[in-house]
From TrEMBL:
The lineage of its organism: Bacteria, Pseudomonadati, Pseudomonadota, Alphaproteobacteria, Acetobacterales. GO terms for molecular function: catalytic activity. Pfam families: Amidase. It comes from Plastoroseomonas arctica. InterPro entries: Amidase, Amidase_CS, Amidase_dom, AS_sf. Transmembrane segments: none annotated. Gene3D superfamilies: Amidase signature (AS) domain (3.90.1300.10). This is Amidase. Residues 23-442 form the Amidase domain.
Amino acid sequence: MSAPLGLAEAARAIAAKQLSPVELLADCKARCDALQPTINAILLPLWDKAAVAAKAAEAEIAASGPRSPLHGVPVGLKDIIDLAGEVTTCHSKILLENRRAEDAAAVAKLRAAGAIFPAKLATHEFAIGGPAFDLPFPPARNPWNTAHHPGGSSSGSGAAVASGMLPVALGTDTGGSVRHPASHCGIVGLKPTYGLVSRRGVFPLAFTLDHVGPMTRSVEDCALLLSAIAGHDAGDPGSADHPAEDFSRLLGAGLRGLRVGFVRHFFEEDQPAEAEMGAAIHAAARVFASEGAVVRDVVLPSLGEFAGVNRTILLSEAGAIHEPWLRERPGDYARITRRRLLPSAFVSGPDYVQAQRRRRELIAAVESAFAEVDVLLTASSMETACRIDDPEAVERTYPRQARTPFNVTGHPAVSLPAGLSSAGLPMAIQLVGRYFGDAALLGAAAGWERAVPWQKVAS
């Protein structure tokens, strides 16, 4: 097998007629055939349909050129995202027959851009469980070390992209579920500004916290994928009326003069990071400064405050969705999913109202910080990936992060690779931007990528 190509590399090769979509798909399938038995990233393979689409893309490109950088490029979909004609199982027994008639809004945009969909990818059950061994599908594993957790809930998306099985994938992020696997698998994972990407056709976890985001091996790929899926959608009441834009336009901006707010108390005091992870984040702050950025400490409300608000809102909104099944089919959930959902019964209406009130105060606190800085720098995960067969360690890993605050506030946030630990597992940093400053955030991320290049494919 040749070295796997990312989205931008593949797009350039296809446009130059150095690569055909059929050849690209065949290379992806060869990697998937070799790696799927140990990584379990794919839940529903769709190679035959993808092959038909690749041949059609090849013919169209030969006749009139590519429609977009996505034309003829395979994109993986987390299996809570609808693909017309296919089941969306949410990795659950409950929805094994849940065949969908229409594409999710983001998928429809990708299809119009010429993307190909060779697989639906593993997820934590209903995007809230964990690695479960009591479901019809095995959990995805970390391609850097298959004994370890890939992060979640977009576990298959992270594993498929990091291993080179697929160039890019979509995930979803309600409490960090794009950025968690990105941090553990050593890839780029973006939670866009709330409302920038439609959630229509995505099974909800918590409607006022849910985001759809790109998972890629490079910042350029992330910008290209976001450009394809962003845009207003009247079918999503949370969709922002924000004009389409080219999110790659600021990738060359550089770091000189960038004002970086260093939120060190998140990983030094609120949830102390492992020594290697903490050292990597401090090293990142020094890199930004050495590249000409102005780095200053910023203090936000504690992680505990953000986490409490997120938990109350998430449980209340998820409970409203799952209450009938929890009553009628509790045994069809994985144990870990059931354990996470059952506390929703104890969240009262006043609890939810108070959490939404406190949420507005937390948003104001973060907005105040952005009056003085352009981006925030902090941790993504507080530790590297734990073993997947250690349930206590798995349970501990979910709260040990700094991602939840930006689901609460809706600011764009990206997890970026920051080298490998002494055990050979990925480490990460997180950058956070202003509302609808996703392009500027990706510009800062690209500056980090140039300053500290990372290994693009797990080994």
